[in-house]
Amino acid sequence: MSLTPFASLSLSPITRHPSLVTLPSPHPLVWLATEAIETFLVHRRLIEPPARLYADMPEALKPAAVFVCLKREGRLRGCIGTTEPLRDTLAREVIDNAVGAATRDPRFPALEPSELDALRVSIDVLGPAEPVQGPDELDHRRYGIILRSGERRSVLLPAIEGVESVSEQIRAARDKAGLGPGEPIELLRFEVTRYCDV
C-alpha cells in the first residue's frame, strides 16, 4: 500500500505498513512526523521537509518548540521535545523530535520497523512559557508546566492521561525532576496546539 500524502503533496509514494496512516488525510505535521520516523527506521536517513508543506502550511517555516509523542496499543512508546525551538523551522523541529521520540527516549528501547503498524503520533506545538506565582494560576487540562529548581527541571504537557488535578501535575513534575515535596521550585506554564492522527 502507498501513502496518500496530505493535500496534494508532490512526493513519490513510499511503501508503508497499511495501518500506520489511520486517516485519509492526517494533519500535515502528523504526516511529516510519521514519514520522518519510517524513513529513519527503514533507510537510516533524515527526510527534508517537502516544499509543498510550506506552501500548504506557511507557519511550518517559522521556528517553534515541539513535542512529539508516540503510542502503541494505548501505551506511551516515546516522547521527545523542546521548550524552546532548536531548529530554524517548525518542520525541522518536528522531523528531529519525531526521530528522537522513536530512537532516543531513554525510557524505551529504540522503535523497531515492525512496530510501525500500530503507531499513533501526536504533535504538541508549544506556545511561549510564562512564570506563575502558584498552583491557582494553573489548569492541568489547559496548561503544560515547566518546573525548575536549580539545575534540575522537568516538563509536563497538558491533558496527560492519568493526571487528574493540578496537584497531581506538580507532583508528577517534581518526581520527574527528582525533587522532594518540600524543595523550592519555580513554575512556568504554557499552552499547546495538539495534532493527533486518531
CATH topology of the largest domain: Glycoprotein, Type 4 Pilin
**Which series of helices and strands comes N to C?**
HHEEHEEEEHEE
Nearest-integer average pLDDT: 87
Shape: globular
- Give the strand content: 15-25%
Count of helical stretches: 4
For the record, the count of structural domains works out to 2
Could you state the CATH homologous superfamily of the largest domain? Hypothetical protein ph0010, domain 1
| Helix/strand structural class | alpha+beta
- Would you state the CATH class of the largest domain? Alpha Beta
The profile of the biggest β sheet is:
4 strands, antiparallel
CATH architecture of the largest domain: 2-Layer Sandwich
> Strand order of the main beta sheet, please?
2-1-3-8
Task: Describe the structure in brief.
The chain is an alpha+beta fold and 198 residues long. It is built from 4 helices and 8 strands, in the order ααββαββββαββ.
Tell me what you see in this structure:
With 198 residues, the chain is an alpha+beta fold. It folds into 2 domains: 28-126, Hypothetical protein ph0010, domain 1 (Glycoprotein, Type 4 Pilin); 130-192, Hypothetical protein ph0010, domain 2 (Dna Ligase, domain 1, 2-Layer Sandwich), CATH 3.30.1490.150. The protein is 24% helix and 23% strand. The chain is built from 4 helices and 8 strands; from the N terminus they run H-H-E-E-H-E-E-E-E-H-E-E. It has helices spanning 28-43, 51-56, 90-103, 166-177, and strands at 66-72, 75-81, 119-126, 130-132, 144-149, 152-156, 186-190, 192-196. The strands form 2 sheets. It has a 4-stranded antiparallel sheet, covered by helices on one side. Strand 1 (66-72) and strand 2 (75-81) form a beta hairpin. Helix 1 (28-43) packs across helix 3. The chain is globular. The protein starts with 27 loop residues before the first helix and ends with a strand. The model is unreliable at 1-24 (pLDDT under 50).
